[in-house]
Amino acid sequence: MLLLLTFAAPDADAQLRRNRRGNGTIYGTRVEKQVVLPDSAELARRDSLHRLDSLHRVDSVALLGKSSLEQPAFSNAADSIISDFSNGQRRIYYYGETSVKYQDMELTANYMDYDMNTGVVFACGVYDSLSGEWIGRPVMTQGSQTYNMEEVRYNFNSRKARIKNMITTEDDGILHGRDIKMMDDHSINMSHGQYTVCDADHPHYYVDMSVGKVISKTKTTVFGPAHLVIEDVHLPFVGIPFGFIPKRPQRATGLLMPTFGEEEARGFYMRDLGMYFVFGDHFDLSLTGSYYTLGSWGFDVNSRYKVNYKFNGSLSLNFSNDQTGEKGTPEFYQTRNFGLRWSHTQDSKAHPGTTFSASVNFQSPSNNRYNSHSVSEALQNQISSSVSWSHNWNGKFNLSINALHSQNSRDSSYTFTLPNVTFTMSTMYPFKKKNRVGKERFYEKISIGYNTTLQNKINFKASEFALNSTMLDKFQNGMAHNFSIGLPNFQILKYISFAPSVSYSQNWFFRKTEYAYNPETDQVEAQPSSQFNTFGITQNYSAGASMSTRIYGTFNFGKHHRIQAIRHVISPSVSVSLSPEKGTYANGYRTLNYTDAAGDAKTDQYKLYSGEG
Q1: Torsions phi, psi of 310, nearest 5?
Q2: I need a surface site. Which of 106, 132, 204, 316 has the fewest CB within 10 A?
Q3: What separation in angstroms does the CA of 128 have from each of 135, 375, 554?
Q4: Backbone φ/ψ region at 59: left (φ over 0), alpha (ψ -120 to 50), beta
Q5: What letter would DSSP give residue 286?
Q6: Average model confidence (pLDDT) for the chain?
């Protein structure tokens, strides 16, 4: 209090002097003091609860802008870490597998040198004297891009880098560069670059660019004078003064680059050189060819099509002339192969009630051996195909038409079913009234269902194939009709259930096979007729009936026994069926009477019709 009064006294004297000079209020007059209320925010700042509120001090929303790393974060090195802070230096050396993360960039290498003063990290691989190779060379990942390098100097402050011998992928192309500078916007300036689609470490072919730039925003590569190099042979007359490689669209017409290599059987090759064509939004096509130095060649046609909400599919066709060994030597072998693949899928909502699908894989027996794209495909011996169309009429009638194919490459056998037709009628009640009045009549319970199948099948070897009448006579065909008849059940004497049943089916045939005795061979030989020269019918029919009931009984032991009563149920049943003899003349059975070479009279029975059913 004394100190407060001491410091306040001079102010009071000064005020008194000002009043005496007439510059202020008259002495003794009451002076109104203006009080300024403190700001609520200032009070909140002084509030201890406010200052200690964790939500206020560490607001997650306020930290969203600082979620990325502000400083590079190094992982522990696999070998050792050495720090050097002498003579004003601040350097850290990382030996062994290590990585550093900074914002959206991650760098891994087997050796790193980080200068904390300049914010520059140097990374490179380590030479293994035992294997004679460099291991752990730098790999930088930035966003969706990956860069493989020999060595790199990256500045964390400017986000620029100096790179030596880098490989990166741009769309489907691979970019090699000797001296590279990466800018802060991820664009790349390079000298002595190579652009190729060959994925080998040392590409078989490439465009040699003197200078180039990759613009990150547009994904476009611009380069200066360049020329084509194939198998390290520079083609000076195949070059351009400047050019650019635009960002590859999803679908674009262009050249398909080949692949080069060597096969022991067919020699050096150049595969899949051709063009890719785009026809509108629903269809594309590629035409490629291959050539081998020992004389083999081939071409492929591949196409895809798609109409949204309707259908989609693909079609592939290949033809090749395959030669192995040198001409004039015992090892020389020549064959021609072909292959057809077709896949088609229809959208289920495109045509309600109608479906169509196809999965076709038809080829020559040795096509997989020479023109496969995988080991499993080359070893595949059994392949099959199917093409199906079906239509349903309000759930009452259904028609299905199929074409089936299977083949075995080991024995060059083929099996075709052209066509396989199935027609089905669901169960119907022909005598049931739509608007029934009164009790249901017994005949209204009679039901009938029907299905029929037509099959035309052929088996042959590849060497037997020919488009002539002899080939058509190899088809085995027939038609089966099945009727399902439901009869009403009856109650006899109120307690006996009587259930009759009837079944009937027919088989139709369009060719027959007669048998005759041949005295020269002393054998009974088949004499098949030509296709569709007859119409034969065989019938199968049967009838039956069953009766059943239930008899309930109880045997009482009395109230004073542990088991007082036993109730039992007896379900007796009896059934009878009638199936006439099917080996009759009407069903195509014949009897052959002949005398063999020994003079013995013999009888042989045979069936005229064979095939379906």
Answers
A1: -125, -65
A2: 132
A3: 7, 35, 96
A4: beta
A5: E
A6: 82
